[in-house]
Specification:
Layout (H helix, E strand, L loop, with lengths): L35 H4 L17 H14 L6 H7 L6 E3 L7 H11 L6 E3 L8 H10 L7 E3 L9 H12 L5 E3 L6 H13 L7 E3 L7 H10 L8 E3 L6 H14 L5 E3 L7 H13 L5 E3 L7 H11 L7 E3 L15 H39 L11
Parallel strand pairs: 1-2, 2-3, 3-4, 4-5, 5-6, 6-7, 7-8, 8-9
Helix pairs in contact: 4-5, 5-6, 6-7, 7-8, 8-9, 9-10, 10-11, 11-12
Length: 382
């Protein structure tokens, strides 16, 4: 008797193992689908294989409008407005610690960016991060305004980097270094960078940087050769009368400066007289800020006389409240009171006269611009 193999069974197959046997259904089950209009909630557009780098702005806007038309929705004006901003022009990165790695990322982007305004206030930029930033900005030709206030920038390495920036970059027109520690030696580095600029910086803000008369010696050397600087703000520095005297002749020789900020720089009537001498010679200065200084009757009188000659100054910022004159020890109380009252009234009168003279200059300025009249010679008097 021989054993029959499975293949010997005609049409018969071996039964599957119990574990693979399908389970018997207890009852019948039915599957149904809802109508198409209920199950389809949207559709995806076909993706075109287009080189997006070659698209023009007009083509992108037209593609968006066609897509809106297919979806039967109105194009959003805000999106259209955003599409018509060709590139990012202003970037504010303030009150953020811009340490080494973020500084590297930003610097790489600046090598090819079209940014025109960059705000980096209070970003801990001193040291290596500033070095990285300056290395990128040396070859950047798009940036126009750079704001670096409140970064603890020091008078040594940081100021050297800023000097290098001004040596190699003549595209930046505004540099704000407010509330740092540039000091006198740092100002020397910056002035060395300014010296080589024949075209470039227009606005330099050095507010509150621990600069004294000794630092102004460097600025006085470079001011006569600057051809583009229009705004210089030295406010909140301890310049005193000596500092104003140091700048006086250089200011006379400069022919580009339009605005000069000297608020709270600790000078008295002596410094105001030096500024009046500058005003009498200048034909282009338009605004002078001398608020929060000890300018009394003598200084106001000198400024008023200078404005009778100067025809360009349209704004002279002064403290509106008259200041008490220094008391003379040998004068009795009654005479002192009369003298004080007279001087206070004189200050009020001079403040009004200065305001009127500036207003007259502004009016003449507008008329000259509208009718293209020649600007009056500084030698002419009112």
């Amino acid at each position: 008797m021989t054993r029959r193999s499975d293949s010997d069974n005609d049409g018969e197959t071996s039964s599957p193992s119990p574990s693979w046997r399908p389970k018997k259904c207890k009852g019948e089950k039915h599957v149904s689908f809802p109508p198409d209009e209920e199950i389809v909630s949207g559709f995806a557009e076909r993706k075109d294989t287009i080189n997006v780098d070659s698209l023009t702005l007009a083509e992108v806007i037209e593609a968006y409008k066609r897509s809106c038309d297919r979806h039967q929705v109105e194009p959003k004006p805000k999106i259209l407005e955003q599409l018509e901003s060709v590139c990012l022009l202003r970037l504010d990165v303030c009150n953020v610690a811009l340490l080494q790695y973020p500084a590297q990322v930003l610097s790489r982007a600046l090598l090819s960016s079209r940014l025109t305004v960059l705000h980096l206030q209070s970003t801990c930029l001193s040291g290596r991060p500033l070095f990285t930033l300056v290395a990128a900005l040396k070859s950047n030709r798009a940036l126009r305004e750079l704001y670096l206030s409140n970064n603890n920038l020091n008078s040594e390495q940081d100021s050297m980097q800023l000097g290098d920036l001004l040596r190699y970059n003549s595209s930046i027109t505004t540099l704000d270094l407010s509330n740092n520690i540039i000091a006198n030696s740092g100002l020397e580095e910056i002035c060395e960078g300014l010296r080589v600029q024949t075209d470039g910086l227009k606005v330099l803000i050095l507010w509150n940087n621990q600069i004294t008369n000794n630092g102004l010696v460097h600025l006085a050397k470079v001011l006569p050769v600057l051809k583009t600087l229009e705004t210089l703000n030295l406010g909140e520095n301890n310049l005193q009368n000596r500092g104003i005297h140091t700048l006086r002749e250089s200011l006379m020789m400069n022919h580009s400066l339009l605005q000069l900020g000297l608020e709270h720089t600790h000078f008295t009537c002596e410094g105001a007289v030096a500024l009046a001498e500058f005003l009498a010679e200048s034909r282009q200065i338009q605004r002078l800020d001398v608020r929060e200084n000890e300018v009394r009757t003598g200084g106001l009188m000198a400024l008023s006389l200078a404005l009778r000659i100067n025809h360009s100054l349209t704004s002279l910022d002064l403290d509106h409240t008259p200041k008490q004159e220094q008391k003379a020890a040998a004068v009795n109380s009654d005479s002192l009171t009369l003298a004080e009252d007279f001087l206070m009234e004189t200050q009020k009168s001079l403040l009004r006269e200065i305001s009127e003279l500036c207003t007259g200059n502004a009016a003449h300025h507008r008329i000259a611009a509208e009718t293209e009249l020649p600007w009056p010679d500084s030698s002419e008097t009112r």
